[in-house]
Amino acid sequence: MTQQTVAKFGLGQIVRHRDAAFRGVVIDIDASYAGLPGETGEVAPDQPFYQVLAIGPEGGFIAYAAETALEHDPELSALTEEAETRWFTVDSHGRHAPRAHAIH
Predict the structure, then answer these.
(1) Residue 94 lies in a domain
(2) In this structure, are residues 11 and 28 in contact, taking their beta carbons and an 8 Å threshold?
(3) Residue 83, class by beta-carbon neighbours within 10 Å (0-12 exposed, 13-18 middle, 19+ buried)?
(4) For the whole model, what pTM was predicted?
(5) Which of 25, 29, 44, 61 is 20 to 30 A from 101 via CA?
(6) What CATH number is associated with residue 71?
(7) Alpha carbon of 47 to those of 33, 54, 65, 69: distances in Å?
(8) How far apart are CA 27 and CA 57, in angstroms?
(9) In which element (H, E) is residue 33 found?
(10) Which DSSP state fits 2?
């Protein structure tokens, strides 16, 4: 029997990283680690991993983070319309993708 994993965060949700001091918006979700074997270190690879369009002092960047490293960001409950327009394309279903990546 296959175990199903339910992601804690959804596409378009604003999160912050517990240790790396960045916040951003979830743009993609993998049910488990999708990188090379052994690269997760002490982080369990059998949990959801998220691509987060993070916003830092130097601008935006894509981060790949384990679910256990992320938390809901109570300071930013939603994207402003200005931020959404600046960073994303949004399809007719409300799915967000960074302007540099196509929505799949």
Answers:
(1) no
(2) yes
(3) middle
(4) 0.72
(5) 44
(6) 2.30.30.390
(7) 7, 20, 10, 11
(8) 20
(9) none
(10) P
Beta carbons within 8 Å of 74's beta carbon, 6+ residues apart: none
- Could you tell me if residue 101 is inside a domain? no
Per residue of the chain (104 residues), what is the pLDDT tens digit? 566 778 999 888 889 998 877 888 888 899 999 988 888 888 899 999 999 988 766 778 889 999 999 998 777 656 677 877 777 777 777 666 667 655 54
Distance CA 64, CA 22 (A): 12
Does the residue 66 lie in any domain? yes
Written as one letter, the residue type at 95 is: R
Extract the tokens encoding 21.
């001091």
State which residues form the domain around 65. 14-35+43-77
CA 49 to chain centre: 8
